[in-house]
Design goal:
There is one protein chain. Helices cover about 30% and strands about 20% of the residues. The protein has 3 domains: about 5-95, Alpha-Beta Plaits (2-Layer Sandwich), CATH 3.30.70; about 105-215, 3-Layer(aba) Sandwich (Oxidized Rhodanese, domain 1), CATH 3.40.250; about 260-320, no CATH class. Residues about 310-320 have low confidence and may be disordered. It is of the alpha/beta class and about 325 residues long. Strand 12 (about 225) and strand 13 (about 235) form a beta hairpin. Strands 4-1-3-2-5 form a 5-stranded mixed beta sheet. A 4-stranded parallel beta sheet has the order 6-10-9-7. The protein is globular, with a radius of gyration of 21 Å.
Length: about 325
């Protein structure tokens, strides 16, 4: 890990009973109040799912503070370094669900965890009775994924149970071995349990997700970049790994892994573009959006633009208009 950068980017989750999520939210806000920390943290009665950026000393103090609580002492925190904050503000919220599934799934009934080393070995020994499933969204998959991974054609993962039913029609659930992965591991905890509950006998999940795999095994069997839900948007999975680009500009087809939010603020779609096409099309995802009434100006010169802060800029644009 490169310690020359100022900020630590932390990612972690844990499933553990939390009787009063709202009180945990208040405790986090009190701890963050005097520290240089920004975050996107969700707390429920099931546990915690968190991503955050913090000045190095504050990040380490937070980890110690969190693990001093018996409920959270086994949290596995994944750390990257960065030259600035990766989140715009502090967000800590209580939620009903840590993962959008809309049905009960017990992570204790989930698939067997494979270490990065075990995962790599299984990929290399993968046979026709093994399927590899990527349980991330289309915009995550398109810029990077494991070689040979299946991408569920879903517009929302709340429909994942229906996808499992389709898999059962194509693959023998008693004979098929399922390998499943996601960014940090949390989605697999519940989706693998669902697959087992629906009749698949042999299900494996990548422990710590792609983040931990990249830190332990580098880019072996991985193509492209990793989509992350913060200002970086895409990162290499290994600090010393190749930065292969497998995705393309929506307009001209040139290699690009740079995401833009559509300049039409009523659209705001995330789309891939090369810099020249982004400028030519005024930062819009399609010609109709170029003439929309709430289109913000395009600012060239950003090699990797940050996600658009829609609420703030929309209100600013209205005041200027």
């Amino acid at each position: 890990m490169d310690t020359s950068n100022t900020y630590y980017i932390l990612a972690f989750y844990i499933f553990t009973p939390i009787d009063n999520p709202e009180e945990e939210v208040r405790k986090h806000h009190r701890f963050f109040k005097t520290r240089d920390i920004r975050s996107r943290i969700y707390i429920s009665k099931e546990g915690i799912n968190a991503q955050m950026s913090a000045e190095k000393t504050d990040a380490l103090e937070y980890i110690d503070w969190l693990k001093s609580d018996e409920r959270f002492k086994d949290i596995d925190v994944k750390i990257h370094t960065y030259h600035e904050h990766a989140f715009p503000k502090v967000t800590v919220k209580a939620k009903e669900q840590l993962v959008a599934l809309d049905r009960k799934a017990d992570p204790k009934e989930g698939g067997a965890h494979l270490s990065a080393e075990e995962w790599k070995k299984m990929l290399e020994q993968k046979d026709e009775d093994t399927i590899l499933i990527d349980v991330r969204n289309d915009y995550e998959w398109v810029i990077g994924h494991f070689e040979g991974a299946l991408k569920p054609e879903l517009n929302t993962f709340r429909k994942f149970p229906e996808y499992v039913d389709k898999l059962k029609a194509e693959y023998d659930p008693k004979k098929t071995k399922v390998m499943m992965y996601c960014t940090g591991g949390i989605r697999c905890e519940l989706y693998s349990a669902l697959m087992i509950n629906k009749g698949f006998d042999t299900v494996y999940q990548l422990d710590g997700g792609v983040i931990k795999y990249g830190q332990k095994q580098g880019t072996d069997h991985w193509k492209g970049k990793l989509f992350v839900f913060d200002d970086r948007l895409s990162v290499p999975i290994a600090e010393d790994g190749k930065e292969e680009i497998i995705s393309a500009c929506r307009y001209c087809g040139a290699a690009s892994d740079v995401y833009y939010n559509c300049a039409n603020m009523d659209c705001n779609e995330l789309f891939l573009s090369c810099p020249s096409c982004a400028e030519k099309n005024k930062g819009c995802c399609c010609s109709e959006c170029e003439t929309a009434p709430h289109t913000r100006p395009f600012h060239k010169g950003e090699d990797r633009p940050k996600p658009f802060r829609k609420w703030y800029h929309y209100e600013t644009a209205k005041r200027k208009g």
